[in-house]
Amino acid sequence: MIHRKSMAFLLAIITSLILSSCENKALKFADVDSTRLLNAAATPEEWLTYGGTYDEQRHSRLNQINTTNVDQLGVAWTYDLATARGVESTPIVVDGVMYVTSAWSVVHALDARTGTELWIYDPQVDRAVGVKACCDVVNRGVAVWQGKIYLGVIDGRLEALDAATGELVWSTITVDQSKPYTITGAPRVVKGNVLIGNGGAELGVRGYLSAYSADQGELVWRFYTVPNPNKQPDGAVSDDALREIGNLTWGDEGAWTTDGGGGTVWDSIVYDEVNDNVIFGVGNGSPWNRDVRDSGKGDNLFLSSIVAVDASTGIYKWHFQTTPGDNWDYTATQTIILADLPLGENGAARRVAMQAPKNGFFYVLDAASGDFISGNAFVPQNWTEGLDENGRPIEKPEARYSATPYMQNPGALGAHNWQPMAFNPDLGLAYIPAQEIPDFYATDENFDERLQNWNTGTNLVAGLPINLDLATAKAIRAMLKGRLIAWDPSTQTPRWTVEHSNAWNGGVLSTAGGIVFQGRLEGEFAAYNAATGEKLWSRDVKSGAASGPGTYAIGGEQYITITTGWGSAYALAGGSAYDQPVPPIVGKVVTFTLNGKADIPDPQLVLPPRTPKTAQFGDNALIETGFNLYHYNCRVCHGPLAISSGVLPDLRWSETTADAVAWQTIVLGGALASNGMVAFDNVLSENDAEAIRSYVVKQAHEGAALEAEAAALMAADTATM
Fold first, then answer.
1. H/E/C letters for each residue in 693-712?
2. Active site residues
3. Is 183 helix (H, G, I), strand (E, B) or coil?
4. Cα–Cα distance measured from residue 514 to residue 529, given in angstroms and rounded to the nearest whole number
5. Domains delineated in the chain
6. Residues near 567 by Cβ (< 8 Å), separated by ≥ 6?
7. Where does residue 187 fall: left (phi above 0), alpha (psi -120 to 50 degrees), or beta otherwise?
8. Cα–Cα distance, 474 to 520 (Å, whole number)
9. How far apart are CA 642 and CA 630, in angstroms?
10. pLDDT digits (tens, 9 = 90+) for 172-227
């Protein structure tokens, strides 16, 4: 492990504590207990848990920054996170100190008033683990409890750090590290237990939620979300629920018996203190394709479900399945928000759980029972005719795809992904970072489990053109849409919508100042009127702004903060989604206050020349082979059609494409394993690697020609103006 402290450590800490009105407390760090967490809404000067409060509304009662003065926001300070990979964390702010994570699960402790570095903790993750990460080596944040900081490490560790020093207190392995598990989500602390899930269903794992003792890191309980392959007890708290409910919804054969079944709990975990339940979202199946996954063709509980368990014991309470028999990677791991809505008898308040998952429907459930109250589509969708009276999707037959590709909306990236939504209880509006990213689905008729690859059971080249002309490139770009939707959950209708120029935009913050804050992956951070959607202010933060922003106050001054960085699933896979190439940009914490005068430094970037490095080679058969092999082995990191967005190298412009030996040294020999590019010699032959190189070189020539054509058209348009 690497641990670093700044020389200004003690001075900065003492200053922060004094300025945060802690004069009647001892000098403690992250001195958080159940009382503070339960009353977090009443202390909006701090941001104590991932969603702000246990209800995870991401709504702050702070109102110093409001609709009348938000246009005066300026940068208070920035802090360099020293990574050019994706950043998705929401900072935790407690007792004047900010705790924030960056790529590779690195934790930074900062003076929340000045941004001065206090300490850094690096868990020293083996970069080869990156091949297990479906959606970049990101981390969404930490939890705090009684002087400790809790971190989920991408390699499957759960760790506790001393909040004052960053020193490791305990570490426990939460997964079988021989399997493709990862952790990207933020832990939550409930009643003295640390709750953590995991990811990896695309590659083939079995999901679960675990509770560990916050003091010692000992396993307290575990809830498996799908049965074990033999449908036998695990000796876990989920045994009864699986025996009585879950096992019946799975067949006895299919890839789930070897690939784990999926159902990872990789994001939303919420504590409902009113009913003393933990409510969590469950992910997609493994493989995605139910026909491949399960011969029984059942609903496959608890995939794509919202599940409630007893907060102390983990014993099952209720569930609601958003997508029975999930076939499309329609996770239900997206933000779950608890609120009181006027949906009871005669308009009385009723405690509800709300979610806008990947499948495109907004759900309102009774928080105590899980009963379906209402649901409606919040984006255009073509996989159902709507929901029945119980909230079950009325599927279109063609959505259960075959070998014939079906272009479906939402696609696998979902109508709403991990970016957190927010809820303003005063206006009764939920704010959804929504998107349209259609996808082609077709059965992979030659499916066979592939090591260190996505095992989806779908045809990963379905709908992709082997040759890309300018018209097709523009058509692909035009289909990708993003929007911020103010949604009324009581009426299941939109109040207002803001259209964005691209998909995959940032998480949302709501404040009592009547403002909604949201960033965009292309770099804009903006404030909108919460009631009308009018844009009131924006600032270029000079990097991707997809994370969930937060707010806090010190010494009577309100701050708005967001982490920035270029990465995550869409950036990795979305090179064709951008009109211009986006270079890798070092992530930052960017913090604003009224009349702030600081600057955001310009990134100093040098991009490789976008020119082919060798002549085209290989006949059509070789190129087609390379096309298929590339998309089954390389596309997730380097982009479909070999078009990278810049998070990882664009292979088209790599010097190694000109040298077959150098290419194979990397692809088969793992020469760049320390950078995360592991050897693929266990799945590819020398001939396979050469076929991929042939395809990439073809794409380089085609891409250069397209860019020249686009530049000529732009010049012609300019000349006629």
1. HHHHHHHHHHHHHHHHHHHH
2. 329
3. coil
4. 6
5. 2-163+170-594 (2.140.10.10), 620-719 (1.10.760.10)
6. 84, 85, 86, 87, 103, 136, 137, 138, 544, 647
7. beta
8. 21
9. 8
10. 999 999 999 999 999 999 999 999 999 999 999 999 999 999 999 999 999 999 99
